[in-house]
Amino acid sequence: MRRKPGTLVPLEEWILSAAIELRRRREDFHGYQIAKHIADASDRKLLTAYGTLYRALGRLEAMGLLRSRWEDPQRAADERRPPRRLYSLTDEGLDTARATRRARASAHARTGKRRVAPA
Amino acid sequence: MRRKPGTLVPLEEWILSAAIELRRRREDFHGYQIAKHIADASDRKLLTAYGTLYRALGRLEAMGLLRSRWEDPQRAADERRPPRRLYSLTDEGLDTARATRRARASAHARTGKRRVAPA
DNA sequence: ACTTTATGGGCAGATATCTGCCTATAATCA
DNA sequence: TGATTATAGGCAGATATCTGCCCATAAAGT
Predict the structure, then answer these.
(1) By CB count within 10 A, which of A13, A88, B6, B57 is most buried?
(2) Burial class for B53, CB neighbours closer than 10 Å (0-12, 13-18, 19+)
(3) Residues of A from 56 to 85 whose C-beta is within 7 A of strand D: which are they?
(4) Mean pLDDT for the stretch of residues B1-30
C-alpha cells in the first residue's frame, strides 16, 4: 500500500525480529519455519497462505537486509523433505533489525514512525 | 501387494517407458513431470496424490534402475519454482526398460509374465 | 482537500517432494 | 487348498517454495 521510502512494513519488522532471535541460537531460518513462528507468536490468522511471507522475504533480500542460500540438497534428502532456502541477516540487516527493536521499545505512547531502513 | 522378485509392477513399467521416451529427447525427468505425463497418457484417475509415484521412483532407484540428482538450486530460483530431483536411467535401467518394451510388444495374446528386472 | 498511483496483503492455487496409515491382493508357506 | 505375509497403491496431509489477481490504503501529486 505504497510504502514511505526507507521504512519497513510490520511483516518485515516481524521477520527481522524473528531473525535476531534465531541468530542468537546461531541458526539460519527458512520461510516455512518463520511463517509458523509468526503465525504462533501473533494470534492473527495471518498467513492463511504463505505467499505474503515469501514475498516479504524477497523484498528484504532485494533491500539487502537479508541474504539467502539454498541448503545442500543432500541434507534435505537425508532428512526426507524438500530443500529449503536459508536466510540470514546481512550486516545492514542486523543494524536495521536492532534499530527497529529500539524504535519499537521507545514507541510506547508515541505513534510517530521512525526510519528503520536506509533510503 | 507382494511382488514376485525380479518383476516390475505396472507403475514402474510406465515410469521406465516414459523415461525411454524422454531420453530420446535428451531430457532428464522429475517426479511431478512424470506424474502428469502418466496421468495424461492413461485416462486413469491415477495419482490422486503423488505419493504413490514418488515411492515408485524411490524403489526404482533402490533397484539400481534409476539414478537421481538434485538440480542446481540456482536454476530453480532463476525459474522461480522449487528445486527438482532429476532422474535418469542407469545402464541397467535402460536394459530393463527395453526388455519391458519387448515384453509388452510380444505380449499380445499371452498373459504370461516375463522377468524384466534382474533378481 | 482531492485525485492519482504505487504496492502490500489476502485469497486462491500451482509447483514440487515426501510421509503415515490402511487395505487389497499376490506370492509364499503349511 | 487354505492360512500367512509382504507390499503396492489409495487416501490424507505435511513440508516447502512461489505466482497471479484483486483490493485496500497510504504516499505522493495537483
Answers:
(1) B57
(2) buried
(3) 57-58, 81-85
(4) 88
